[in-house]
Design a protein that fits this description.
2 domains; 10 strands; about 15% strand; single chain; D-Maltodextrin-Binding Protein, domain 2; 3-stranded antiparallel beta sheet; alpha/beta; Tripartite-type tricarboxylate transporter, receptor component TctC; about 350 residues
Length: about 350
């Protein structure tokens, strides 16, 4: 559900964040941030947009970041889930409709790149400024611990999908790396899945818990509790190397004999291009200070994700986003989705 800015701000006195930031002990970074904060800004709570449903990996990260942003800055903020179109609705709002006064920021990820391609030219990734990196992690391939694929691993599941094409159900988020991963699995194994669309990874995991799909992809924060409760099992992870959070789980590459199944998530803060430079600089510094807080790094670690110190400036982040966009375009060209 999307809540309008006017409705949220108008009820500020009743919101759970009201006054909460001021109750925190003053953060060591506060003085430096106050020294560069533009006069009269912010004049209202800052909206932090998550484009996927509540409870998913992006939403969990967004709420942790929002809490530390308030702790660092002493300013009020709120998370708003602007969902729809598997992320396209929220990304389009950020790129084309969000206020350019610095009172709306996006907590986004590299899925914005595929959504820009799906926007049919309405907007580009370059219509946003990418100002602060948050964290990154691979995708985990999960099955139900009581389902038909609780044994046999990824290889056994692919063999079933090859033997019974179009019957093994996989949760899909249309138009991004969930879909690309499914295609790579099919190409490498000669299998064919029944793709079941969802608005985000979290709803797909919920469907897997009910045995409504056979395979789903999730981030560590989305699946950790279900693994601890013996309800879900990891059968593979994306990336070139096993993840430290699931060290006994093989990579997809090692199972299917490829080296290019490396889809994962990189999360960051983005703002509309037209936000004034001084406000943009303050926001970037504030989020960098939040991410540098050892307590936030530990919370990220508990969520199975880590910051990337190499992306600690807007320039480095924007260069990395451009590289990610080029890599995704190369895949889209190779798969015939876009012309060469």
């Amino acid at each position: 559900m999307t809540i309008t800015r006017r409705g949220l701000i108008a009820t500020g006195a009743a919101l759970p964040f009201a006054g909460a930031a001021m109750a925190q002990e003053t953060h060591p970074a506060r003085a430096a941030l106050n020294a560069i904060k533009p006069a009269g800004y912010p004049r209202e709570p800052i909206e932090m947009v998550v484009v996927y449903p509540a409870g998913g990996g992006m939403d969990i990260t967004g709420r942790v970041v929002q809490r530390f942003f308030e702790r660092v800055t002493g300013e009020r903020s709120f998370v708003n889930n602007r969902t729809g179109g598997a992320g396209l609705v929220g990304h389009t709002w950020l790129a084309t409709q969000a206020p350019s006064d610095g009172h709306a920021v996006g907590i986004i990820a590299n899925l914005v790149i595929s959504d820009a391609a799906r926007s049919q030219g309405r907007w580009q990734v370059s219509d946003l400024d990418h100002i602060a990196h948050l964290n990154a992690e691979p995708l985990n391939l999960m099955v139900n611990a009581d389902g038909p694929f609780k044994t046999g691993g990824l290889r056994g599941l692919l063999e079933a999908a090859r033997a019974r094409p179009g019957t093994i159900r996989v949760a899909n988020v249309v138009g991004g790396y969930y879909e690309y991963l499914i295609e790579q699995l099919e190409q490498a194994s000669g299998s064919r899945f029944l793709k079941v669309p969802f608005q985000g990874g979290g709803p797909g995991i919920t469907a897997l818990l009910g045995n409504n799909v056979d395979l789903a992809f999730g981030f560590f924060a989305e699946v950790r509790g279900h693994m601890q409760g013996n309800r879900l099992l990891p059968i593979a992870v994306t990336g070139r190397q096993p993840t430290a959070f699931l060290p006994e789980t093989p990579t997809v590459n090692s199972v299917i004999g490829r080296d290019d199944v490396n889809w994962g998530v990189s999360r960051w803060i983005a703002v509309p291009k037209a936000v004034p430079a001084d406000r943009k600089a303050w926001l970037a510094a504030a989020f960098r200070a939040a991410v540098a807080d050892p307590a936030l790094v530990e919370e990220f670690r508990n969520l199975g994700a880590l910051p990337d110190p190499a992306l600690n400036s807007p320039a480095a982040l924007n260069a990395a986003v451009a590289q990610m966009a080029e890599a995704e375009r190369a895949y889209l060209v190779a798969s015939g989705r876009v012309p060469r």
